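My current task is to audit a protein record that another person submitted. Please read both lines and tell me whether the tokens look consistent with the sequence. Do not assume that whoever made the record got everything right. I have pasted the whole thing underneath without changing anything:

===
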Amino acid sequence: MKRLTTLVALFVAGCFVTGCATTYPIGTIYTEVKLPVTATGESGGKKMGEAECISYLSMIATGDCSIEAAKKKGNITKVTSVDWSVKNILGVIGNYKVIVYGN
């Protein structure tokens, strides 16, 4: 029982010290945010493409979240803006997307 209590205490302490100074809002238990990355001088933006990466247990991450991959999926040649979407639950499963708008 003492070992379990120690592990829980270490986990809780770790939650409070990780991700303290980030450039985006982050929740220790749950994060779901959409943030802007950039915008161009191009107008319009009728098409949309997404590229996705996934993280498991904050230990393994895979995928292609590049702007080029999102452009390809949306059949976009001229980018008007780029957004970023994050959904993470307890660091167990993280879903990261780059969303590109353009023509």
The CA atoms of residues 8 and 19 lie 19 Å apart. Helices lie at 2-17, 67-74. The longest helix spans residues 2-17.
